[in-house]
Amino acid sequence: MPNPIIDTTQLQCDKGTKPTALIVTSQTFMKIDGKLQATEDDIKPNENIMPFGQCKLKMYLGGLFPCIPAPTKWQDISVFDIDNKKELLDKSICPCSVGGKISVIKTAQTFVAEE
Question: How confident is the model at residue 46 (pLDDT cuts 50, 70, 90)?
């Protein structure tokens, strides 16, 4: 079952060389484990999604250019919303207009298994 994600959840672009943490700025009141819950509006490059190291699709003679995110729109999001913005889930993905795909690699919250 997909779970909502929160501030500091680790994201990875499949064309980048390192992960980065999601920074939630889209809402200020809904929290899980004391951290703000992410929504589809947490998509701004260099504000919500920081660079992913170097981009494997952008090469030059001396190596690779920085992997500056160019997200288009979150997909596989929740049907539930926070302040009219759909929740992001640990299965959510976001295509990058350069050619990569941004996805969740590690959630920041702790889940307790039901017995």
Answer: very high
